[in-house]
Amino acid sequence: MRTSTPAQSPIYVTPVSSRIKRIILAIWGVLLFSIASQASAATVLRVADTQPADYPTVIALEHMAERIAELTDGELLLKIHPARQLGEEKDTILATIFGAIDINRVSSAPLGTMVPELQILGLPYLFKNEAHFYRVLDGDIGEEILAFMRPHGLVGLGYLTAGARSFYSTRPIRTPADLAGMKVRVQNTDLYLDMVRYLGGNATPMSFGQVYESLVTGVIDAAENNWPSYVATRHFEAARYYTLDRHTMVPEVLMMSLDRWNSLTDSQQAIIKKAAREAELLMRKLWAERVEDVKRTAANARVEVIEPADLQAFADAVMPLYAPFKENPVYADLIARIRRAGEP
Ligand code: GCU
Predict the structure, then answer these.
(1) Half-sphere CA count of 129, side-chain side, radius 13 A
(2) 267 C-alpha to ligand 1 centroid (Å)
(3) Is 253 exposed, middle or buried (CB count within 10 Å of its CB: 0-12, 13-18, 19+)?
(4) Residues 298-303, mean pLDDT to the nearest whole number
(5) Which atom of ligand 1 is closest in space to residue 105's alpha carbon?
(6) Sign of the four-CA dihedral 3, 7, 10, 15
(7) What per-residue confidence (pLDDT) applies to 27?
């Protein structure tokens, strides 16, 4: 009988709609589950670097991020914040200790104010050449120095090369005497304040991000850095004399917050170490290429490159910087071993 039809209609409709609902719910369930499981499985690590996105340190970090993602099957992901997005180096160092930043690439100079053993690596004219520098960083001494970071809440993952640092200025510097009366920006550490004072200049500690404007406005007359930084920051446009006195080889440090490190499994820690080592090696290649590249940029911009006739005069002037370190037996031993590593 058709009388049942009206009554059947909702019955008919109801099963269809509930089936659709069940299907939609099932699809949502699968989607939500996969989103939730991805969210709970992946740990995103915040990474800081003061340099711009196309700088070799950041490219090395990107490689590290890819390898970590690959080797952990997406469990650990790195979110890189270049170009001082997370602040100037001295602030990001504190943020890493407090765990607001997980991984940080910094110059060892500002870190050395906290971990003095790192300052040793940045002493002037310590390394004879690049091979000596790598032998020390790749060997026991390099590892020992990184280990001094632990009591400060930081895990040293490795070093990235930063070449040699030299002075650049708005007036030529050919001898230490030319630094007299010059205001020279240094990184925020007493070691380099003293270095410039011993050379006869007026040292001005300042964050990296303030240097360009300070050169342009005449707040400073000079600064010092490696070739890629001199060019990437466009400091060469404001200070067109680059004096290759190569006073220091200050390494960059790759480090991690100790709290975050402790929250990882042994296998995740091993993967991070492995990826950091790969980044270190990649960086050496990227660096060499970048130095050649930026030298061309500087030459096109008519930067005057000065090779000091008497490099020894620069070295002699800054030697008193070693005295306070040599009074401490641990530091004295490290310096002696580093020197020995440079002997043939
Ligand atoms: C280098 C280094 C930076 C550092 C800078 C400085 O460019 O890569 O990390 O901040 O020196 O002079 O402060």
Answers:
(1) 3
(2) 32
(3) buried
(4) 98
(5) 9
(6) negative
(7) 53
* Contacts (Cβ under 8 Å, ≥6 apart) of 207: 88, 89, 90, 188
Token output for 288: 């060499």
Structure-block tokens of residue 14: 């109801």
Q: What angle do CA 54, 277, 290 make, to 5 degrees?
A: 30
Tell me how far apart the alpha carbons of residues 238 and 212 are, in angstroms, rounded to a whole number.
Answer: 7
Q: How confident is the model at residue 18 (pLDDT cuts 50, 70, 90)?
A: low
Name residue 306's beta-bridge partners.
243
What CA–CA distance (Å, rounded) separates 104 from 282? 17
Q: Tell me the pLDDT tens digit for each residue of 232-276.
A: 999 999 999 999 999 999 999 999 999 999 999 999 999 999 999
Phi/psi at 246 (5° precision) = 45, 55
Which ligand 1 atom minimizes the distance to the CA of 88? 10
Closest C-alpha to 281, from 75, 142, 138: 138
CA atoms within 13 A on the CB side of 259: 8
Task: Count the Cβ atoms, other than its own, within 10 Å of residue 85.
Answer: 12
| Burial of 177 per CB tally in 10 Å (0-12, 13-18, 19+) | exposed
Integer Cα distance of 126 and 338 in angstroms:
8
- Is the per-residue pLDDT at 19 higher than 70? no
Distance from chain centroid for Cα 79: 15
Ligand 1 atom with the smallest distance to the CA of 208 is 13
Token representation of residue 124: 């002037």
Within a 10 A sphere around the Cβ of 272, how many other Cβ atoms?
26
Tokens representing residue 224 in the block: 């010092």
Residue 264's SS3 state is: coil
Q: Tell me what percent of the chain is helix, strand and coil, each rounded to the nearest 5.
A: 55, 15, 25
pTM reported for the whole predicted model: 0.89
Q: How far apart are CA 105 and CA 97, in angstroms?
A: 13
The residue whose C-alpha atom lies closest to atom 9 belonging to ligand 1 is 107
